[in-house]
């Protein structure tokens, strides 16, 4: 990675070049050019309006990128400052983590996005500019060069407006075009130009191409561009312009022919290659090159058709040789195509499924998943004919192809044998080494993909991503083979709706709280300020659910542009191993970076306490706040301190159980920062619980009305925990189902069923346990009671109880209990926690206490 | 001729008997899901229905199976899992994770074990990489990805559940229960514990997330059922190779069940403990007495086994003591009587012993003080006496306070059986004043 020194390390002096133009109205002096002199070296950088510049940012490795729009000096302020107005570009790592998936593919290392977001502050201090950078615009069908030696070139292909990635508009292209020309005229050497598209395409043409080339685009996009040979490409462009449309349509035809129209044919080809070719990756080449021969004659393709014929004639043995020749030819073809079709939705359709599906071992369905997996790793094993799969595989292949080809371009000639070597090695590793008890049912592929990247990094450099980009592994439990059954009966339906996990459309009985939280967050969002809120309430009162609901509503509002968009992050104290891990989690969710706790804390502080260019409010939900308590309380302090800074734009919502947590455990300086925006969720009353149940069971008639009221009252009297209420109802439906004789038409859940469920859940099991204990155990309990009564204490040593026990046994005609037996009985009762006993090391002297009230024991022993 | 025949008969018998012993011992020792369940049909139905709902409908659940030790918790869950896995649509749709609180003593180890058993992405071979925090977030991420209808349900079985509740912050339990209460990968969390107060151990947030389903196993059978279990446990299965022998064996077991003395033995055993494991222990001891010359179990075997089971371990130790040591114990007993269980030291015991020796010099040899000290230390090593506080270097051993760990009744019983006990010593034991 390039490292851009900032002012902190080398002093730079900024000075204007040329005469200023005065803007009377704003008291601005507008300049055209600025020079930056780096102290110690003689070089001087001239920066002109219209150029692309790097701007100092949070991250020294990835400074901000922008296009300079205007340079001016602001006279209105007492200390006149050099200011600049810029059009921002955004790097992928600056895109909020939550929205990164919208791109739908992996970003290239040097890819940036046109930041199309007017709300962003574009006025910056000119002295933060570091230097030039080269930005190249690419058409949507062009391929981002994967490996460039020169890190000073960035590529822009899409624009980002905080909601979606869009292709660059033709106007922007034209602008880039101009700039490029200008740049080239200035610096003829050292700049590697890209093909420049003519945006003057008729839309009709576009439409046709879009339809035709849904699939072909994926192919073309994966093929590498030619950064090393700009001259050759230039020529080819001219060549391409000479024959405007044909190659393009031809390719799309050929592709659709190969992939969709004739699955049979592609199948045949596949099998052919399966039998003949030892190099797996050569297969798409063959596909690619042999099909033109089947098609109509070409206009451009003198070379191509000959190549294709070559290919056709070639025996499988000389396939390897052919292979090395083909890509060179093909790149020319692709280049042509690219110059012709600037706008194509290729980036959309070509997204391969990145999530590796774990392989299923199930025999019945073994074929299909294997084929799918095969598409990613072992293409030669495919047996399925379905066109969809073929298509999928071709895409994957092309991806590989693209990789391997750019590889070849780099080092001129990479023997095909080596590639096949590495891939076969992968295959070997993909066989799990140990068939474990569970492993046979589990994701093999996940494990293997990891392993191959571990073990063969040198052989497959293309597949291991750059160390700087985090590997986005998506951990996943494997999916089931059979879909879960849908509920069949009314009771099952009711049970599904009553499950705590079922998310209701609305949260009844929490309207007021919802409104309060909503208003709080919304006001902060609108004002672009920060703040804290503390939410308390006993478990199961809907705290987290309400906040989630608020966030969901706000996100919808943000999408409708009613409120500014914001970034939402959630951390849970209980889901951390250690309080300081909270920094790591926040940082990871915020930026996707991984860091140690201390480093993460520093980065977050830097992020929240310094001015940023793209200002977006962050909403942070901290659940189970009390677990973030540490001796120094530095975590809580930081969490509540950040929002007080203007730059942070951070809204912190904290949730905990106890109402007086701030007073009880927080130091003054922490609780003072938390502020007084508090909210407490009261336990649900019985009418509220009833309403919740009714709203959940809106269209399902499974419960008697009385039953619902009963359970609501029971739970409200006990805890007011909505989870409990739902669980009881769920259990009651089960009891109802069991008790009902006819399984097809179970009746309504009655009061009796609910009472049984309540009993099961809340009744103490001590009495039944005593009733069911053995005779000796019961008499030991009696002896304990007798000893307690004798001594008047609630505690006795084992020896005392033992003598009582012996006496009792004699009275009741039981055989004499030996010490060992009695000790066994005692420890047995102790393990059930009917008794509280010391460790049995103390032997005769161990102290015994009852864990149940004496009355309960007496009651249980009576019968 | 006849002798040879009987010899070959014996050979067959030996072969058969070793087979019988193998079959029965396997039954007693393994908690195999093949054996029958006794008296827990209702609980079993509850559990299996719950597991089926998780496996088939993808409904998350949590349940605790509570019962005293040896009440068949593990057998119940093994049975249920076996039946579940036999259902065709379930067998390959379900993942199982088995954890034991005695093995996974903290969340870090538990997480690694879960990841290993689920064979997630960061498992390489047998090892799980990454720090504790990474593992946790990785696992949570993995479980979060799923949803009710498409993800493979995971059944977590937490043996010795109460020990998991002692983990720091109960992080693991919170997360498992939280997932089981949210729309993520379907989970069935099954905890096995013998503690009746388990819910009090759970932290309030964890408790709120637990569904409060409890299945109690209480050994709620009576003596007639106990007899039936006894018979069933000893009977040979129908698939035993030698039909004739099986018949004979089972007949003898039937006789045994009807025998009065055997019933008495069983009743006694039943009174002490309803635990099936202790029954197995008894049967195991009885089974060991079966030999070629004694091919069928008899009532005497049972009685002997019971005697063996109910033996007092400390009385056995006392039987093996020397006369001097017995004398010391008797002296300690008298001290206990005189000073009402107050602790004593060696000097007091030695004085008491001296008094006795001076009176009855002819019956007990007057040992030197160091010898008596040695005997005293031996008693301490056998843990028949116990120092009140830890032994430190600077306290004089003669004056360290001790307590006797034998009950008076135990001492008297042991003395009665003590071989070759001098009469004077026996008399001294019954009364401390006998020398007067």
Detailed description of the structure:
The complex is a heterodimer of chains A (863) and B (436). With 863 residues, chain A is an alpha/beta fold. Among the domains of chain A are: 12-182, Bromo adjacent homology (BAH) domain (SH3 type barrels, Roll), CATH 2.30.30.490; 510-680, Rossmann fold, CATH 3.40.50; 686-762, Helicase, Ruva Protein, domain 3 (Orthogonal Bundle); 765-860, Orthogonal Bundle (Arc Repressor Mutant, subunit A), CATH 1.10.10. In chain A, 45% of the residues lie in helices and 14% in strands. Chain A contains 31 helices and 22 strands. In chain A, strands 2, 3, 6, 7, 8, 9, 10, 11, 12, 13 and 14 form an eleven-stranded mixed β-sheet that branches. A five-stranded parallel β-sheet of chain A has the order 16-17-18-15-19, sandwiched between helices. In chain A, strands 1-4-5 form a three-stranded antiparallel β-sheet, with no helix packed on it. The longest helix of chain A has 24 residues, at 387-410. Chain A is elongated, with a radius of gyration of 36 Å. The termini of chain A are far apart. Residues 1-9, 186-391 and 400-472 of chain A have low confidence and may be disordered. The radius of gyration of chain B is 30 Å and the shape is flat. With 436 residues, chain B is of the alpha/beta class. In chain B, the strands form three sheets. Chain B has a five-stranded parallel β-sheet, sandwiched between helices. A two-stranded antiparallel sheet of chain B has the order 3-4. In chain B, helix 1 (2-29) packs antiparallel against helix 14 (276-287) and helix 13 packs parallel to helix 15 (299-309). Chain B folds into three domains: 1-30 and 221-310; 54-216, Rossmann fold (3-Layer(aba) Sandwich); 315-431, Winged helix-like DNA-binding domain superfamily/Winged helix DNA-binding domain (Arc Repressor Mutant, subunit A, Orthogonal Bundle), CATH 1.10.10. Chain B: It is found in: Nucleus.
